[in-house]
Amino acid sequence: MPPTEPTDTPSPSKAGDAVPRVSDAPGIRFEKVVKRFGSNVVLRELDFTVAPGERVTLIGPSGSGKTTILRLLMTLEKLDDGVIWIGDRPLWHQDKGDGKLVPAGQKHLHEMRKQVGMVFQQFNLFPNMNVRRNLTEGPVRVLGLSKDEANARAQELLELVGLSDKIDDHPARLSGGQQQRVAIARALAMRPKVLLLDEVTSALDPELVVGVQDLLRDIARQTDVTLLCVTHEMHFARDISDRVLMFDQGQIVEEGPPEQIFGSPSEQRTRDFLQAVLAT
Amino acid sequence: MEWDWTYTGEILPDLLNGLRVTVTATIAGYAIALVLGLVWTLLRRTPSRIVNQTVRWVTEFIRSTPLLVQLFFIYYVMPTFGVTLGPLVAGIIGLGLHYSTYTAEVYRAGIADVPKGQWEACTALNLPRSRTWLDVILPQAIRRVVPTLGNYLIAMFKDSPLLLAINVLELLGTAYQIGAQTLKFLEPITVVGLLFVAVSVVSSILVRRLEKRYATY
Fold first, then answer.
1. Which residues contact B42 (CB under 8 A, 6 or more apart)?
2. CA-based nearest residue to B110, from B147, B85, B81
3. B183: contact with A, CB 8 A cutoff
4. Which end of chain A is more exposed for a tag (fewer CB within 10 A), N or C?
5. For residue B100, which of B148, B159, B29, B21 has the smallest C-alpha distance?
6. A and B: number of Cβ contacts within 8 A
7. Which domains, and CATH codes, for chain B?
8. Which of A257, A264, A229, A239 is nearest to A60 (CA)?
9. How do residues A85-110 score in pLDDT, each as one tens digit?
10. Separation between Cα atoms, residue B171 and residue B189, nearest integer Å
11. pTM of the model
12. A19 — contact with chain B (CB < 8 Å)?
């Protein structure tokens, strides 16, 4: 079953918000999703749903499958079994008309990927292009924007991330924090409706972390994307998310609003994990 | 035996003509090697097993047989299949074909060196395959291998005298002809050596400059 339509269910909002968030971004639904690496089963018939426009943070020990979930959504890893829905369409399958799902071809994946954007732990900017080209490559080559339109969009986004003066620089000349801001801008330039953040501050020097997190908080406030975030920064998770999912060994151990998960977790494994993370 | 300066002066124009042929053959052959090598590398990455295995064995075969044998094959054997080529053209094709199997390996290594994250960023941006290659992967891969490719230019230049075996009047061939006519080999062959050194040294310097220029973005 596809997730419900956005108009029926306004996404859960954080306590204190005056108006519940209504989004035209798609929801996400995992149905019995299986992912193996060799004999290692990372995701074991995983089910979960993300409402349209909802901000969900995935926490848990490394190897628990959080990043794999993002990578499946970005089609960086192949699905072994189950179905992933983005909105009312399966990501990895095509409906042959009779309700039967068959593995999708490249064309379908290309179509579905248009809705999804991702920011990586290691930034992955293109070192052979300057910042402008990094931001315009996708819009020009994929979305078919004219050079001028793409440039205008790039400038707008660089302003948002506070790097307007770096437009002609190559990534190698930027600090880690600046590179990650550009990478965020690059992802946003494609106007994704689902944004995936994969440990985006883990590779940064400690003094640069806060700046990038503040930026993401602003973006979360200003846009209505559906947001999936993997992080080890618990206060960031608390700030940004409507809901927190605690993972262990490819399963959801516990879920709930951040106040509950961080304030009074009910599962022992969650308590152990939080204690370990907060101790460092 | 005395060094004869007047004689050296007389033969120099002919030798420089030979050098011109040598350089022409090297540059033209190198251009073929650069393009064809890339074609081999990309064909080896196609999913079709028939294509990539055929390319694999053909290039392996060419790399493992001597250049001289290949030159003989192109110049003396191909005419029996109806393909007759002039000596210089046959030489250029021989050099280019032979060295393309080396440049293919260089490209392959360069592409393997591009971090996985670059491919993933291309997927995340939804770039089509062609753009991924042309705009992201190849520019980075080639940049990494410019020094190695440059060294093959010099290696190829030093292999070019083999072309005299198929009657190309390149530098060494010219010198040999002069020597055979005058029975004075000292000057022509020595000048050949010096000219080779001169060109090699100049090219090495150029290659090193390229290397520096491409070392950082």
1. B133
2. B147
3. no
4. C
5. B29
6. 64
7. 5-215 (1.10.3720.10)
8. A229
9. 999 899 999 887 777 888 888 999 99
10. 9
11. 0.86
12. no
